[in-house]
Amino acid sequence: MPTATVYRWPELPADHPMPLLERRRFAGERMTVARIVLKKGCQVPLHSHENEQISLIVSGRLRFGVGEGGSQEITVGSGEVLHLPPNVPHSAYAEEETVVLDLFSPPATSTGIDQGAESAVRA
Questions:
Q1: Average of pLDDT values for 77-98?
Q2: Do 35 and 26 form a contact (C-beta atoms < 8 A)?
Q3: DSSP string spanning the chain?
Q4: Any idea of the CA torsion for 81, 105, 15, 49, to the nearest 10 degrees?
Q5: d(Cα 74, Cα 90) in Å, to the nearest integer?
Q6: Fewer CB atoms inside 10 A, N or C side of the chain?
Q7: What are the angstrom distances between the C-alpha of 61 and each of 20, 29, 55, 107, 112?
Q8: Per-residue model confidence as pLDDT tens digits over 12-46
């Protein structure tokens, strides 16, 4: 029988896949949850991935570029949630220091930010 697991963000290993960004994450059987802190001015390059992504903004504000070339601009702030279907190109810019919880399904060991902007954009 499955059991519950407790995770504590400060105890999970942190990585820094790009400047001004710290990420801590864990994966379950069907999703990955990442707690990401973006310092003001952090630019996440345009990328896409096969995972569905739900971004819950805990604090701060992110401006997303969504679609081919990031043509649609969407700003989300504290208490708001952005849903990104699989394979939708997107970028993000931290208008202020921001804490976001990203949920990925299926689980993701890496996403576009781990690969760099040029190689991460897929048709």
A1: 97
A2: no
A3: --------GGGSPEE-SSTTEEEEEEE-SS-EEEEEEE-TT-EEEEE--SSEEEEEEEESEEEEEESGGG-EEEEEETT-EEEE-TT--EEEEESS-EEEEEEEES--S--HHHH-HHHH---
A4: -90
A5: 10
A6: N
A7: 15, 30, 12, 25, 21
A8: 999 999 999 999 999 999 999 999 999 999 999 99
What does the longest C-alpha to C-alpha distance in the chain come to?
47
The half-sphere exposure of 54 on its side-chain side, counting CA atoms within 13 A, is 11
Predicted confidence at residue 111, as pLDDT, reads: 72
Measured in whole angstroms, the distance separating CA 104 from the mean position of its chain's CA atoms is 8
CA distance 5 to 10: 15
Q: How far apart are CA 47 and CA 113, in angstroms?
A: 7
Reading the block at residue 116, the tokens are 């760099």
